[in-house]
Amino acid sequence: MLSRIANTMYWMNRYVERAENYARFMDVNFNLSLESTPDAIQQWKPLVVITGDWDLYESLYETVEKEKVIYFLGFDPQNPNSVYNSIRHARENARAIRPELTKEVWEQINYLYYFVMEELEKKSWKENDPRLFFKKVKEGCQLLYGILAISISRNDGWHFGKIGQLIERADKTSRVLDVKYHILLTTPQAVGTPFDLAQWAALLKSVSAYDMYRKKYGKLTALNISEFLILDKVFPRSINFCLIEAEKSLNAITGNEGGFTNTAEKQLGKLRSQLEFTDVNDIFDSGLHEYIDTFQKRLNEVSTAIYDSFFANSHQQTSLNIENQ
């Protein structure tokens, strides 16, 4: 497969996953804000921090307000990672490889694009309850995942797309965990309080993990929630699961069944192995924030290795494909 096509499939899926995650975060955070004291900074600043775009937000806005954060994350053309830009970039990547996609995939991406454009024109972020927008973005992305799953052959292009989706998902799961532990809970006295437990529940809901977590552990605890979202091997949004499945797709592309044949396989295999032999108590002993910070750096190294191993020789790289560091 041409590296240009592989690169485009990879980024198309990353952008769709990014848009869906942003809609998730905003939806859950909006619900949580209805049950908490109306402190905009405490409620909405962490949402921007999750995305890694706090510096950009500060350069554009003087204050943290609910409406401004929703606009910034959902619609702002100046934010390269907003839902609007993520869906727009996904569509432009899809258009660049239109012959590689099915009619159904293209129609769904088009639907998402025009829906977000319409909501931008309607200024939906100014509505008292913007949850319908979040819901439709999530449902639209999930429908696209289903169409991709049932209509695209499991060839190299599909696997590159899957790797992009899984790496983006692992990154966002790590970010939402890090922000909860490192920023939202600022005082040790708040540990175990109803406010603390409400935040942990919201965190699980933001990655659709609440029901599966309850089935496995029952009681909400920071240790168990962290173990579930980082190390669980069968929950599809845990970091470990994402790396396991990404490695499977990478091996399917290379035909490799053991060891490594390129830098991407080496870096991804090392990172996945580290999680496989990690204990959650070890993570907490060394510091959850420190562990996640190191993980994100190594995940970025995996992304760089994938680019170097498969995409660097392409002479048609698009400026749309900018990693969210």
From TrEMBL:
- In this chain the DUF403 domain maps to 1-311
Q: Which InterPro entries match?
A: ATP-dep_Glu-Cys_Ligase-2, DUF403
Q: Which domain of life is it from?
A: Bacteria
Q: What is an example of a Pfam family matching this protein?
A: Alpha-E
Protein name stated in the entry: Alpha-E domain-containing protein
Organism equals Arenibacter arenosicollis
Q: What is the lineage of its organism?
A: Bacteria, Pseudomonadati, Bacteroidota, Flavobacteriia, Flavobacteriales
